[in-house]
Amino acid sequence: MDAEKDVLVDFYAPWCGPCKTMAPYYHEVAKILASHKNIIVAKVDSTKNEVKGVPINSYPTIKLWTKGKKESPIDFDGDRTIRGFLSFLKEHVPELDVEIPEDKKEDVSKEEEEEEE
Fold first, then answer.
1. What are the structural domain ranges in the chain?
2. Are 52 and 20 in contact (CB under 8 A)?
3. Helical axes 17-33 vs 108-116, angle rounded to 10°
């Protein structure tokens, strides 16, 4: 938890269906942000690792720790799409200079709703 960087973390379980569905979007966001030195996009397998002080009640759980505010992470509650992740980051990390592309893939949360019906 570098105090000088913003850190987005996906806490997942390998067997979790929504985690598997979301993974390509999250991976693409990591690729888009790879050249940004002040932001880290990470994943934690919560079935093998625990992070002290970070309760995980469901999968995926996504949290953002902004630089200078490591004691209070921000819960991600947006669309699980490339656009959703980047919009969330732009909202909470205003100095992030990244173009938000139009999503060509369907919204993951809508796919989940259809599966439940």
1. 6-116
2. no
3. 170
Distance CA 24, CA 110 (A): 16
As given in the structure block, the two tokens for residue 17 are 């269906």
Which CATH superfamily, name and number, covers 6-116? Glutaredoxin (3.40.30.10)
Element (H, E) at 88: helix 82-92
Cα–Cα dist 83/107, whole Å: 9
3-state secondary structure of 39: strand
Element (H, E) at 50: none
Report residue 62 as tokens. Answer: 């996504």
Residues in CB range of 49: below 8 A, 6 or more apart: none
Tell me which residue of 91, 79, 99 sits closest to 25, measured CA to CA.
79
Per mean pLDDT, which range of 69-73, 76-80, 90-94 is the poorest?
A: 69-73
Cβ–Cβ contacts within 10 Å for residue 71, how many? 7
Average pLDDT over residues 76-96: 94
pLDDT on residue 8: 97
